[in-house]
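Here is an idea for our session: we take a single protein and study its fold together. Start from the sequence, derive the backbone structure tokens from it, and show both lines together. Once you have written the record down, we can walk along the chain together:
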Amino acid sequence: MIKKDMTLGEIVSKYPSSVNIFKSKNISGFDENSKSALLNKLTLEMAAKTKKINLEILLDTLNSSFDTYDADITAETREYKAGGTDVSGLLPCPVRLPLLEAFKEFDSDNPEIKLNYDLKSASSGSGWMEELIKKDNISEIPDIFISTGFELFFSQNLKNRIKKESAFKDKTGLEKYNKIFDNTDLKDPYGNYAMVGVVPAVMLVNPAELKGRKCPKTWEDILKPEFEKSISIPMGDLDLYNAALITLHSRFGYDGIKKLKNNFLDNLHPSQMIKADKLKVNKPAITITPYFFTKMLPEKSEMFVNWPKDGAIVSPIFMLIKNRKSVHLDKTVNFLSSKKTGEILSKQGYFPSVHPDVENNIKDKKFLWAGWDYLYENDIDQILDNCTKILTENTQEV
């Protein structure tokens, strides 16, 4: 749990993406030269007082964003099994525990596979997996990686490795994805990346704050001048935040991100968004939020879900599978991409599964995402860095 007497250095060290939240509150000093000198002396309470920010709200934002109230953010420690099948990953918080239970059952039923797995909460960050993927010796890399979002799997280094070494391959055997994605082209045409489901992002509308403005029908609508200082973006939810930036950039370029900057009002974690109509100040008219959080709206809330006509923004749940022959690896992949796993995602987390036999209970809804050509042809890390600078550093230049 983040406390008021913790230094900014402590917080940023444990939760690196908290930098985005601090910058959104105009708390600066995160360049390399000033980190050790400033961040390790300035407490959260001091920073809030200096910037005249409500400390209680800032604490709630940080703790909500990184699930620090939940101590169970890592899988239990297990004895390593030599010669086994290694699985590493980040699981979306709402479905992590049921997925772990199903995985433990699969492990127990298949002792010959010798599973070694480390499946952490998405809130713990992906830095540890980045180090694993970067290993030069392919034999030292886990057999399977699972993670949501774009940050981990689309670095230039990894894409070059996939292209030159054919290090990873989609071995799920799913020739066609669920019918709700028929018009989305989610399946990798090059056969490198696999996918098990998606985290959709929609708009949550506060009608009282529209103040005569028409409810936006598309993502392009929220970039219009009439929504100046009216949009909330979940910078603490890094996967959704990145998915929103990548998808909007793929459609509208940096010009669209600059328009989003002009319309940005505040950073709210999705758990706060569903109570946004109760805020005393900075009430957003539109909040960008994961679809599953909208299921937690208070019964009497006047806010409503707006599924854009051009589609909910997609943050895919990717699976990167080592390209090697192994019956045990194939059996593990089949489980992770199975209908059983897909139903856990869909029914317990409202994360639509790509498995063709899962009933996702989403009809006549579209999905919007960047597309494979965009992901393969662009430097995703650089684009995310440029977009974040536009949103957080008071600059229109990239």
Q: What stands out?
A: Strands lie at 85-91, 115-121, 144-148, 194-205, 231-233, 264-267, 286-290, 304-306, 312-321, 367-368. The longest strand covers residues 194-205. Confidence is low (pLDDT under 50) at residues 68-77.
